[in-house]
Amino acid sequence: MRTEEKLYTLRYKKDDKSHLAIKDVNTCLECTAKYGEPQPCVSICPANVFSWQNNRIVIGYENCVECGASRIACPYENIDWNYPRFGKGIALRYA
Amino acid sequence: MLDYDIVVVGAGPAGSAAALKAASEGKKVLVIERGPEPGSKNVSGAMIRKDYVTSVFGEDMPFERNVETIKLSLYNGNKPVNIEFHPRGLVTTGRLKFDKWLSSVSEKAGAMVIPKTTALKLNWENGVAKSLTTDRGEVSAKSFVLAEGVNSLVSMESGIKGDWTPENSVQAVKMVYSIKKSDLNTLFDLPDDNTGMSWRMITSDPLIAGFMYTYKDSLAVGIGSPIKELIDRKIRPEKLLDDFLAMTGIAEKVKGYSLREYSAKIIPEGGFPDINVAKGNVYLCGDAIGLVDPLTFDGITPAIASGTLAGEAAVYNYDKEIYRYNLMKNPEISKIAKERKLETDFMTGNKAGEYINMVSSMLEGWASGDLMGIRNTMVSNYRNLIPDLMTFVMRMR
Ligand SMILES: Cc1cc2nc3c(=O)[nH]c(=O)nc-3n(C[C@H](O)[C@H](O)[C@H](O)COP(=O)(O)OP(=O)(O)OC[C@H]3O[C@@H](n4cnc5c(N)ncnc54)[C@H](O)[C@@H]3O)c2cc1C
Ligand code: SF4
Questions:
Q1: ipTM of the complex as predicted
Q2: Exposed site from A55, B158, B165, B177, fewest CB < 10 Å?
């Protein structure tokens, strides 16, 4: 089963504002030179939130399952990691 | 500005225990929870100790099934070595129902719970926290409990603790399959709808702690694996879970049943006692100070134990050394503190691999009649491995 299909099982309320951001795009270039692809954030994320497109990390924050791993996996602490606002984001039922 | 005696961040087991304690002592308590309802952001197995929870929160705890059997499998390649126990007092539960119930008990004791609200930061004056800023406004209090779980952003923002690192944290992913009661009973040989079995697995390469728990009409499966190892080897956690399900034969069992929910959460592996637990009038508890065992996944008991102590510390405004001392002398918490070293060896050395190899070579030796071989394995490993292995197996119960 593809990750996207797994994510379809989740109830989700989208916050208009992204709760995740890259602090400095140049750091991602440095990271890619050192760690190669997939970068640590791309490979640790169970929800395919990060992808490497045109030499930068693109964030699909609306897929985020709020596990916390990407914040810790980033070797440069380059992810500004917050919670979605006002109770938005995922709403689990059976976990 | 709203004003309370005590504000608790997080309505998980630690936060609800703190709120219950403080409200029972007559304090005016507010609990801030970021989820749409308590439990909706939380992930566990979960297998929990019913008697312990009941001793703090009272009767009527919602649960899925009584765990009558636990099978522990140590995988060396695809061949597991199995150990089976019959535990007492363990039940399975899902976090939404469980956390809602815990929170409702704290409300009955007088606490006020506000969901859909995210705590952002504490505002300090001369080392004393005066108020808490949330995404819906500010609230002041005499003391605060941070029961925010593993992603403890407010504690970190206040400089009370640092973040986890890839070396001391585990990525966990979980899936729940819908399987109707009668099918579940047949699949796992369960006599009735209230009886369940749990299966815990450990593999050495890569290091995975896996679980399979029977709920009433569904099956929960998941794995945890050290973040460092996953990143170094560029292993995707959800792919690792799929492979794991195939290897253990669970994939075959759930074939044709629909996936009900997918989730993930990190698990801290380091923490108490090597961590700051308080600052001024602010007390941390539960996963925020790493009170969970990443191999057995027992985190709810120590969350409740530490939450109760944090609630008490907030009521009496204990000095942080007194709070630390109280944590240390609590048996549920000191157990984790004492086992840190074993845990670290498991995570960073390859102890898990050594155990599994030892057990399987012993049993193979036995099966082939090579009793000298067993003796050599025992003698060469006894001093360091067997006591640890026994501790580990005991913890699994
Ligand atoms: C896959 C998996 C399986 C597990 N299995 C088991 C098991 O079988 N048995 C067991 O005992 N333990 C298990 N655990 C561990 C257990 O889940 C944790 O140890 C336990 O939940 C910790 O409780 P807590 O109250 O400290 O934190 P949490 O349960 O994480 O609660 C924290 C609460 O705070 C809220 N919050 C966080 N930040 C904010 C904020 N800024 N503002 C407002 N609210 C906030 C969260 O939404 C959440 O409700 C498992 C964990 C995982 C990941
Ligand atoms: S928190 Fe988890 S799901 Fe969200 S982006 Fe980070 S790794 Fe992906």
A1: 0.97
A2: A55
